[in-house]
Amino acid sequence: REHYVHDDTARPPADCIHTAAHFLLASKRGPDYQFASAAVVLLRSLGISARVVSGFYADPLHYDRRTRQTAVSKHDVHFWAEVFVGGGHWIPIEPTPGYELLSPPPTWLELGEKG
């Protein structure tokens, strides 16, 4: 993550056959789907089951304390990777610089313990 640049406008050359290899070895810059795809390629090369996932990134900066919700829009579409750990469970990993894994909201029990 520290030697690569997140750039939504970067694209591989039109004649590029192996876009993940181009991203990893040549350009070292690209959109989030390139980071997720490269992470999955590397994990699979190590024999680890992994997949690319897409969804919305609920940016903590957009959290509204009054409504206790985070607004998302079409600009919040994001790609990340998940690793299979068995028992039907997938664990998310965030390879894209500038993004972080968000913790689930605290349970009622956890909220009560803080009070």
Measured as a percent range, the helix fraction is 25-40%
Radius of gyration: 17 Å
- Give the ordered list of helices and strands: EHEHEEEEEH
Average pLDDT: 89
Ranges with pLDDT <50 over ≥5 residues?
Answer: none
Strand arrangement, largest sheet? 3-6-7
In DSSP terms, counting alpha (H) and pi (I) runs of 4 or more, how many helices?
A: 3
- Decide which structural class fits the backbone: alpha+beta
Tell me, briefly, the overall form.
globular
> What can be said about the biggest beta sheet?
3 strands, antiparallel
Terminal Cα separation, in Å? 37 Å
Note the beta-strand portion. Answer: 25-35%
Topology:
Blueprint: E1 5-6, H1 19-27, E2 29-30, H2 32-45, E3 50-56, E4 63-64, E5 69-70, E6 77-86, E7 89-93, H3 108-114
Parallel strand pairs: 1-2
Antiparallel strand pairs: 3-6, 4-5, 6-7
Helix pairs in contact: 1-2
Name some characteristics of this structure:
115 residues; three-stranded antiparallel sheet; two-stranded parallel sheet; 7 strands; globular
TL;DR?
The protein is α+β, with helices and mostly antiparallel strands. It has helices at residues 19-27, 32-45, 108-114; strands spanning 5-6, 29-30, 50-56, 63-64, 69-70, 77-86, 89-93.
